[in-house]
Amino acid sequence: MTLAAPDHATASPAGPQRPGAQRWLWPVALLLTLALGWAAPLLEALPGLGWLIRVPSALVIDMQAAVRGFMDWLVNRAHFGLFTFRELTRGIAWLVDQPYQAARFVLVEGWVEGRGARAVTHFPPLSWIAITAIVTTMGWHAGGWRLAAFVGGCFLYLAVFGQWASAMVTLASIVIAVPFGVGLGLLLGVAAYLSPRFDRALRPVLDLMQTVPIFAYLVPILFLFGFGPVAALVATVIYAMPPMVRVTTLALHSVPEEIREFAAMVGCTRNQRIWRVLVPAAKPDLMVGVNQVIMLSLNMVIIASMIGAGGLGFDVLNALRRLNIGAGIEAGLAIVALAVALDRLSQAYARRSARPPTASGMSWLARNRWAPALVAVAVLSGLLGLIWPPAQSFPAEWQITTRDFWASLVRTINVNYFDQLEAFKNALLLNVMIPLRRFLLALPWVWVLALVTLAGWRLGGARLAGLCAALVMFIAMAGLWEPAMITLYLCGLSVVIAALIGIPLGVLAASGHRAGRVIGGFIDTLQTLPSFVYLIPVVMLFRVGDFAAMIAVVLYALAPAVRYTAHGLRSVPSELIEAGTVSGCTRWQMLWRIRLPMAVPEILLGINQTIMLALSMLVITALVGTRDLGQEVYIALTRADVGQGIIAGLGVAAIAIIADRLIAAGAARTRARLGLTGRGGS
Amino acid sequence: MTEGTVTLACRNVWKIYGPDPSALLAGGSVPDAAAIAASGHVCAVGGVDIEVRAGEIFVIMGLSGSGKSTLIRCLSRLVEPTAGEILFDGQDLLRASPRELIEIRRHRMGMVFQHFALLPHLTVLQNVAFPLQVQGMARPAREDRAREVIALVGLEGREGHYPRELSGGQQQRVGIARSLAAEPDLWFLDEPFSALDPLIRREMQDEFLRVQRLLQKTIVFITHDFDEAIRLADRIAIMKDGVLVQVATPEELVLRPADEYVAAFTAHVARAKVVTLGAIMTEGAPPGDTAGRLPASARIEDMAARIEASALPHAVIDDADRVIGHVGRQAVIDVLVNRGRG
């Protein structure tokens, strides 16, 4: 790999070798696009050309009605002979509800009989002392004293700042959703590993699950599983599971060939091979998937609070609606504390599984002498709580609130910097955003179709071109052209800005300077935060609208651009760097001529991730009033309109899949040109 | 080497990769290399016949890409051959059902891998006991047996360690112990020492020979190292481009290489290590007094000092103690300095 790379990189820079016509293809296409966008209003006035500019209404099919009809059939008439489909889903809901109630019982409510003033608590939930002790011990177990202190601190924050009850509701959902997500993901991943045919069938489904915005499938899930926390749990599992499936299949495939042969040679049956050899051997990789499931579950649980699960997300939303800035920030920080604690903890467990313990040959209890102590703490604090309530639940009079502080801080910023913020916002709106939006909306749809298809054909051949054309046609025929173009404008602009900020930050992070390391750590933390959190400061400073939405999207989608750039730069082979040094490259030459070109495929993948995150965040920003596909989905949610939600959701997925496939094909081509081997795709 | 019963035989085994390999072999005709390449196929193993006798160390030697790894995987049916027969104690492995194959592998085959293939999440003891656990053996019994084989390869005291806490040589000892835990009759070793440093490699070869003297397994041993092959082998099969070039004892290979390719390997071998007294003696009774009697099967390297030290020739005797020839100082020196035909 390292030997081939420099040859290819220097001997065949793609430009000069391309025939002239192809070299001019994209500049010409760009000029034509600009011209068309400018001239479209004039063309539209010409008779007989209108259908080329606007999607003709004859082409639009009422897909929403079809989806509504199907959903109606599914909910009301579909059956398997003995029971209906709805009974099946309600049965599943009941099954999921049992462990969920148990988790709430342990973490939130305890065993209470009666309501209101006559309520009798038979058994209290785990006390705040016990839960903090448990997570602290887990931190110590997984990563030593520093992690223990960190995790313990995060949970203490929840108690001291009065977020405990909501946080425990959120935690209860996660505690249930994560095992379901990990278990199902593992099973599906193993099945995909065993059967390539199942794998091929599963991939597009996973693509859809990851790209269709969450709000879109909330409505059908509500219909099938009933309103309430269980529907939120089901949605969470659907949302959080796909990475686990992918990680499992990938991890099992990357177990060394010899280990697989070994399993065959000792005469393992299929089940022994999978569960005794391959899965344990792939455990460090699988733990990365578990970490992802946890973080995505948290993200989703926060969003799902809106459909009645309660918890921290609900507090934030509530505060935002009432413009209670202090309470919003406080609850948002609680989400941050919970997210960071869970992330560090699960990452530490992932690292731990890569290096097995050295102390062996002892019994479990001897190795885990802390376990009985922990049980003792839980029981004692519970008992103590019966006579001295502060040991059970953190007393309100000890709580500290930062609400006023935050509220006054934001007020100060708004009072003192209102003009600057407003000027910045207006300048960007008037000079960039609104013109771009007008331009995109004016573009003839046939031209957009042609451009996307051409890009697909150039980057990936006939199949990709066909896929791109079909997806663009879907958007047109679903009657979603206008919101789709607005989505493109918001998402595109956000991604460009995120890349402009993120790539230089990535370069800095990879430079090995102290500042770089700090940036890297900061970005890592930023990426663990649930998307919802990003809305809080943005709304407070810029209120609602496209601009606020764009800022939130940029913040949320920034992380992968930084991370992938830094990773791409760091993984340039050291021989190449040495070769550059020996040739007398300056630092800038090294960066521009060696490191950045070699990192292009990785940076492209980072941009791809940025686009995916931007699209998923766009749907969230519908809460602050955009007019794109996300808004369509969100309106459908509030109206409980299955058809509108699903079709608009599929529209978002179509855009995501086009972007993903085009960039993946581009990255694969660059990779091949640089002579780098390894995985392409997303 | 005495002629024993044949434990493992493979007859006309082919492994061809490509779009439609079996079509090439249809009709019983033997395709030539050019035809295979022209049709877009790659021939990894081409019509190989081998007989491995009970209790012998049969080494398959070849450079990378020669098909030796594919061949051992065909013999163990890790890779499904395109055509041919593989007889293990008279039973055709290629016709064994999946269930039968699992039974055969559990109880009668063992394999050692180039990169050890130890399970990272298990201790040494658990790794070695793993094949027995798979069979469903109870824990005390399998751990007792595992401790026995761990002691056999000299790793007592390391039972509780995890693989990554061990050196490469120690890890391969674990691999060897594990492959012996189920007491297999047939032992496959796929370049077991290639990933080790040269000094450790030599130590492991000695260790391997010691274990084999104790256990007398039937062994198929793969290597790309000719020196290793002649050190360990009773017989060597040399492979090139998927085809067997020559199957012979180390001595025959050195004395009578089948072609230029084999000769190129043997050219730099110190002959004294391989050639026996029987090959250089003058036949017939010694002309006069002799300094002593030496067996014909002894290697020159081991006897050179003794023969060279004496002015008188030594008588050479066969297995039945009969004098069949004599050997003097000059013949030994000729071999040591690589003079004459050797």
UniProtKB/TrEMBL annotation, chain A:
Keywords on record: Cell membrane, Membrane, Transmembrane, Transmembrane helix, Transport
InterPro entries named among the record's database cross-references: MetI-like, MetI-like_sf
Membrane-crossing residue ranges in chain numbering: 24-43, 147-164, 171-194, 214-240, 293-317, 323-342, 370-388, 464-481, 487-510, 603-625, 645-664
A GO term for molecular function: carnitine transmembrane transporter activity
CDD domains (UniProt xref): TM_PBP2
GO biological process: choline transport; glycine betaine transport
A single Gene Ontology CC term: ATP-binding cassette (ABC) transporter complex
Domain of life according to the entry: Bacteria
Membrane topology summary: Multi-pass membrane protein
The protein's name: ABC transporter permease subunit
Source organism per UniProt: Rhabdonatronobacter sediminivivens
UniProtKB/TrEMBL annotation, chain B:
Pfam families: ABC_tran (PF00005)
Catalyses which reaction(s): a quaternary ammonium(out) + ATP + H2O = a quaternary ammonium(in) + ADP + phosphate + H(+)
Assigned GO CC terms: plasma membrane
GO molecular function, a single term: ATP binding
Subcellular location field: Cell inner membrane
Gene3D superfamilies linked: P-loop containing nucleotide triphosphate hydrolases (3.40.50.300)
EC number: 7.6.2.9
SMART domains documented for this protein: AAA (SM00382)
Membrane topology type: Peripheral membrane protein
Entry keyword set: ATP-binding, Cell inner membrane, Cell membrane, Membrane, Nucleotide-binding, Transport
Organism domain of life: Bacteria
GO biological process, one term: glycine betaine transport
Residue ranges annotated for the ABC transporter domain, each copy included: 8-266
Parts forming coiled coils: none
PANTHER family assigned: GLYCINE BETAINE/PROLINE BETAINE TRANSPORT SYSTEM ATP-BINDING PROTEIN PROV, GLYCINE BETAINE_PROLINE BETAINE TRANSPORT SYSTEM ATP-BINDING PROTEIN PROV
UniProt record similarity statement: Belongs to the ABC transporter superfamily.
NCBIfam families attached to this UniProt entry: proV
Oligomer and partners: The complex is probably composed of two ATP-binding proteins (TmoW), two transmembrane proteins (TmoV) and a solute-binding protein (TmoX). The complex is probably composed of two ATP-binding proteins, two transmembrane proteins and a solute-binding protein.
Protein name, as recorded: Quaternary amine transport ATP-binding protein
The species this protein was found in: Rhabdonatronobacter sediminivivens
Source organism phylogeny: Bacteria, Pseudomonadati, Pseudomonadota, Alphaproteobacteria, Rhodobacterales
